[in-house]
Amino acid sequence: ITRHLTDLGIPPAYVKDGRKVATRGKRKQGTAGVWWPGRVGLIIRNTTYKGVHYFGRRAKRIKEPIKRQVPAIVSEETWDKAQKTLKRNLMRSPRNAKNRYLLRSLIKCGICGLNFGGLNDHNDTPYYRCGGKRKLRGIYGKTGEPCRSKYVPLAIEDMIWADLEEFLRNPGDVLKTLAENMDGLEDDDSIAKRELELIQEQLKEKDIERGRILNLYRRGTIDTALLDHQMADIETERQNLTQALVCVRERLGGVQAAATRIDSAEALLSELNGRLDGTLTWELKREIVETLVEGIIVETVEKKNGKKEAIVHVTYCFDKPNSLLTNHTQIRASRRWGLKISRMYKMGAGRSAWTSNDSLRSAAA
């Protein structure tokens, strides 16, 4: 972003305002005339752009900042999406990592909810470990205890990659399941359209009611106080109906977007399948993993003999992100019909003692 702004010739604030700096290197004074990542990061995180400004954050004399509403430059949905993108990029950034782990930032602990990270043991054997086992974070960190989750060997990478390669080489089963899960889509579409018609009819009825009340007032049947009371009630009901109308339209938009799910999934699998035929680098494998792996949860079960067993739940998602969906209601309605595949792996006492259990499921299940 910083490079793009600089290439476009868009000046930073101090250049635009014509501020001059006599001495280079003076504190809090920019002199290079270019954009820096830190400045862009502050802009993206600033709540003022979504219409919420806090006064007195830096003032020592003010105990609590004063919150106030200001004109928004971007929608709250866009701002929230930017924060999630920043968080996701931070989690997936290799930063100072010495080793590369294919499932970095994708594995979460089923006990404390923290992320698993990759590291090597004293024998230089790589594996994944919950972040709560080292820094005493999460629900166990409050009590001064490490997380009780089990370590996950690096063999999980090969198993998940084998799944992905199977999906890409033989996409027929995935597409067949997706088609079967679309059977109820027409019902959702019909229900949403019927709700839309009913709300529109009720809104017309409110306009008729308003006219009747005004006629009664003109005839002298009701006084001003009763008129104001009735008109206020009608306006409240209209606002509620209008809000419901917006929600139904958004839901209908999400359902209609889901109707293209089969073609979207087929195109996605075909595109990724074509890339497998070239040079299979680690970077390409990581890109495919980020595209198709929605999440991995490690559940730790303690047996009667005191030994722990790790049950790894992997969820694969075959939906391309739809940039036309602009709000949470549309996205939820669309995801209801998205195709996902869940697979479960169990790890016994040995590091390579793995068994798997496959299950195809729809997000609507």
Distance between the termini: 40 Å
What kind of sheet is the major sheet?
A: 5 strands, mixed
Low-confidence stretches: 322-335, 349-365
DSSP strand tally = 10
Rg is: 28 Å
Helix fraction, binned, reads 40-55%
Largest sheet: spatial strand order: 3-7-8-9-10
Shape field:
extended
Strand fraction? 15-25%
Class computed from helices, strands and strand pairing: alpha+beta
List the secondary-structure elements in sequence, H or E.
HHHEEHEEEHEHHHHHHEEHEE
Helical run tally? 12
* Mean pLDDT figure: 78
**Integer tally of domains:** 3
Task: Please give a structural write-up.
There is one protein chain. The chain folds into three domains: 2-92, no CATH class; 107-182 and 262-362, no CATH class; 185-258. Helix 6 (155-169) packs across helix 10 (261-276) and helix 8 (185-218) packs antiparallel against helix 9 (224-258). The protein has helices at 2-7, 13-16, 37-45, 76-92, 138-141, 155-169, 172-181, 185-218, 224-258, 261-276, 282-292, 328-335; strands at residues 52-55, 66-69, 107-109, 116-120, 126-130, 152-153, 293-302, 308-317, 339-347, 354-362. It starts with a helix and ends with a strand. Residues 322-335 and 349-365 have low confidence and may be disordered. With 365 residues, it is an alpha+beta fold. A five-stranded mixed sheet has the order 3-7-8-9-10. The protein has a three-stranded antiparallel sheet with strand order 4-5-6, with no helix packed on it. A two-stranded antiparallel sheet has the order 1-2. It has twelve helices and ten strands. It is extended, with a radius of gyration of 28 Å. InterPro entries: DNA_bind_recomb_sf, DNA_bind_recombinase_dom, SSR_resolvase, Zn_ribbon_recom_dom.
